[in-house]
């Protein structure tokens, strides 16, 4: 994935040390992008293999997505290391599942702050740069929970629905500057985030999914790769469900 001037595309991925984030980092690096990912815990070493013979550089940086100054530092470091910024993937997210009646205020605030405010802060940090250069991509990782709502996930569903509204608003604002903004809304993906689900609940969700299975991280990272590519230059303001048909 090359820019017109022959340089690698420069990408920032928040929350890229595991799960979906790790798969996105690996996919974009293997496609030839230079990637800087953020993490809050110990970063996971990005694996390489035959498909990554021409991979771009992969750097990591510890940062709390709720920290506006850290967001600016991450964007600035990407520009220093890679010579600019072409793509921002807002992926960082957490869950604190509980019914509305039993949910602590801190669980509500933490999920909204990480999942929604974090996406806003990184988008804000990147927006002026992308607008000045009259090009760029912002890709928000939302969720089917934000599209249809999920019982026991009022905080998570609200945050992910907020990302959808943020995506559409930013697409309108940044479109005149040739910057696209899209969201990917995964369904149930086999990562640590769903490891706490009970077997009966998993069985129920699989039966509601037309494809009859949960997705894998690569199902999502491939869509992100497309949205980051030149092929998606006229796609903006869209919410792409990657859910096996669960949201139909």
Concise overview:
The chain is of the alpha/beta class and 248 residues long.
The count of helical stretches stands at: 7
CATH topology, anyone?
Rossmann fold
- Along the chain, the helix and strand elements come as EHEEHEHEHHEHHE
Class in CATH? Alpha Beta
Q: How many independent structural domains? A: 1
Q: Please state the CA-atom Rg, rounded to the nearest Å.
A: 17 Å
CATH superfamily: NAD(P)-binding Rossmann-like Domain
Shape: globular
CATH structural architecture: 3-Layer(aba) Sandwich
Strand content: 5-15%
Key structural traits:
7 strands; Rossmann fold; 248 residues
Structural topology:
Layout: E1 10-13, H1 19-30, E2 34-39, E3 58-62, H2 68-82, E4 87-90, H3 105-133, E5 136-141, H4 144-148, H5 154-174, E6 179-186, H6 199-208, H7 217-228, E7 239-242
Parallel strand pairs: 1-2, 1-4, 2-3, 4-5, 5-6, 6-7
Describe the structure.
The protein has 248 residues and is of the alpha/beta class. It has a single domain, classed as Rossmann fold. 42% of the residues lie in helices and 15% in strands. The chain has a 7-stranded parallel beta sheet with strand order 3-2-1-4-5-6-7, with helices on both faces. Strand 1, helix 1 and strand 2 form a beta-alpha-beta unit. Helix 1 packs across helix 7 and helix 2 runs parallel beside helix 3. The longest helix has 29 residues. The protein starts with 9 loop residues before the first strand and ends in a 6-residue tail after the last strand. The model has no long low-confidence stretch (mean pLDDT 93).
């Amino acid at each position: 994935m090359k820019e017109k001037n022959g340089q690698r595309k420069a990408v920032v991925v928040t929350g890229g040390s595991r799960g979906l984030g790790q798969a996105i980092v690996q996919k974009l690096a293997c496609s030839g992008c230079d990637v800087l990912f953020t993490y809050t815990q110990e970063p996971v070493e990005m694996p390489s293999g035959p498909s990554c013979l021409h991979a771009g550089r992969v750097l990591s940086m510890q940062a709390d997505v709720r920290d506006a100054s850290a967001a600016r530092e991450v964007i600035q470091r990407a520009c220093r290391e890679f010579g600019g910024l072409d793509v921002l993937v807002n992926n960082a997210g957490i869950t604190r599942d509980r019914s509305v009646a039993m949910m602590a205020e801190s669980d509500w605030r933490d999920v909204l702050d990480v999942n929604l405010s974090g996406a806003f802060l990184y988008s804000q940090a990147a927006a002026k740069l992308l607008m000045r250069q009259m090009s760029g991509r912002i890709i928000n990782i939302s969720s089917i929970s934000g599209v249809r709502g999920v019982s026991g996930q009022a905080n998570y569903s609200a945050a992910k629905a907020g990302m959808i509204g943020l995506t559409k608003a930013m697409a309108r604002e940044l479109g005149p500057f040739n910057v696209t903004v899209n969201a990917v809304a995964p369904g149930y993906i086999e990562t640590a985030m769903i490891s706490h689900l009970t077997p009966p609940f998993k069985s129920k969700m699989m039966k509601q999914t037309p494809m009859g299975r949960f997705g894998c991280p690569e199902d999502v990272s491939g869509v992100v790769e497309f949205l980051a590519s030149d092929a998606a230059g006229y796609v903006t303001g869209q919410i792409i469900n990657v859910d096996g048909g669960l949201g139909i």
